[in-house]
Amino acid sequence: MLQILRAATPTPTPTPFDPNLVTPGVVGFFVTLGLIVATILILVDMNRRTRRVRYRAEIAERLDAEEAAASEQAGGDPQDDTSSV
Question: What is the span of the domain harbouring residue 56?
Fold first, then answer.
């Protein structure tokens, strides 16, 4: 009975293994590097555009505040812009 149990357990045979087929190699490195560089460039561009929009909004608010202050000094109602049309 002991021989039957020993005969039933197969032993794995080693298969030929090429490490170059398993690793991504130089091509995978350059693809990953390209994705990282593209992501950094996109983030820098997005940050620049967001900052530009924020600055334009701040300038528009300042101009609106100056315009409202000038119309108050002139004695006009800042909400009534139909008199200039």
Answer: 37-72
pLDDT along the chain (85 residues), means of 10: 62 74 86 98 97 95 94 71 54
Q: Is 71 exposed, middle or buried (0-12, 13-18, 19+ CB in 10 A)?
A: middle
Question: Which are the contacts of 71, defined by CB distance < 8 A and separation ≥ 6?
Answer: 77, 78
Task: Flag whether 49 is in a domain.
Answer: yes
Cβ(37)–Cβ(44) below 8 Å: no
Give the contacts of 24 (CB within 8 A, at least 6 positions apart).
31, 32
**Contact in structure between 83 and 76 (CB atoms under 8 Å):** yes
| Number of independent structural domains in the chain | 1
Tell me which amino acid residue 54 is. Answer: R
